[in-house]
Amino acid sequence: MRPLAVIGNVNVDLILGPTAPWPKAGTEIIVDHDELRVGGQAGNSALAWEALGVDFAIAANVGNDQFGLWLRDAFGDRATKWPVSSERTTLSVGITHPDGERTFFTTLGHLPRFSLADTLCVLEGAQLSGGYALLCGSFLTIDLARDYEAFFDWAHGRGISVVLDTGWPPDGWTEQNCVLARAWLSRCDCALLNEVEATTLAGLEKPAEAAAALWSSMPKGAILVVKCGSDGAIAIGPDGELASVAAPAVRVIDTIGAGDVFNAAFLAALAKDQPLAACLVAGVQVASLAISTLPRSYGGLPDFRDDVA
């Protein structure tokens, strides 16, 4: 299996809910569920890999407080080289709704200060050679994002394929943010976008058309994935052919981190050199189970055919 790493945002999530409608100002309501857990795109993907029994490296930073210590403890030996920022740890409070959707309130905290130097003090380039490095939370890890070009050079110089999931910009998909994301895509070996991100960046309404347009701007041999929620996922692989997989019908309980779980399962299959369609199946199946179970369950990767490469 090829080596895997994730780089980016790890923070604390406090999940409360469900509630509907939104409460009036000055009132207090009681909800049925609360959970304090590791969050952030990188954190969610790493937890999914852990649950799936997949080995990985993770580069992140934490804040200088008790939450920072708690996050480091959650990742054990993998977090021994994580730098500690002088800021407090980023905290997201997620309010869930009966339809499975959620609203987040997030502090910037330590994430903007995560840098390229922080990343390279954690990752071992030689150990990741031939593998995949997933970049997450681009618009939150501000210092690192400024040096993405240098990171691409470092990774590609060591035979590491760069995978990108930008996440949602706090200020929305402004023209400046779209320009940045397109520039990053032009150097990525694989991109894992959701439907809104893909159609917005491409300026096209249909996910398949958006995928084709964005894929054409990426390096030769790249993979472009569009996660379409309850409609499953589509992808264009190195041969330029479109693959698609439907999602099973499930009772949605908690959609938080669904895309990050998809990313983890998809890349785990890709690291096993599985065909693109099989990687999509892995991503959709594992993410569908995760959003429909409480406590969250990931199951396992599908049983791949040994004779398929």
Please, what is the average pLDDT?
95
Number of DSSP E strands: 12
Mind telling me the C-alpha Rg?
Answer: 19 Å
Q: What's the overall geometry?
A: globular
Number of domains: 1
Percentage of residues in DSSP E strands: 15-25%
CATH fold description? UDP-N-acetylmuramoyl-L-alanine:D-glutamate ligase
In CATH, what is the class? Answer: Alpha Beta
H and E order: EEEHEHEEHHEHHEHEHHEEEHH
The number of helical segments is 11
User: CATH H-level name... which superfamily?
Assistant: Ribokinase
Helix content bin: 25-40%
What is the level-2 CATH architecture name? 3-Layer(aba) Sandwich
Give a verbal description of the structure.
The chain has one domain: Ribokinase (UDP-N-acetylmuramoyl-L-alanine:D-glutamate ligase), CATH 3.40.1190. Helix content is 33%, strand content 19%. It is built from 11 helices and 12 strands. The strands form 2 sheets. An 8-stranded mixed β-sheet has the order 4-1-7-8-9-10-11-12, sandwiched between helices. Helix 8 crosses helix 9. It is globular and about 55 Å long.
Topology:
Layout: E1 4-7, E2 11-17, E3 33-39, H1 41-52, E4 57-59, H2 66-75, E5 91-96, E6 102-106, H3 116-120, H4 125-128, E7 132-136, H5 142-146, H6 148-156, E8 161-165, H7 175-185, E9 190-194, H8 195-202, H9 207-215, E10 223-227, E11 233-236, E12 242-245, H10 258-271, H11 276-291
Parallel strand pairs: 1-4, 1-7, 2-5, 7-8, 8-9, 9-10
Antiparallel strand pairs: 2-3, 5-6, 10-11, 11-12
Helix pairs in contact: 1-10, 8-9, 10-11
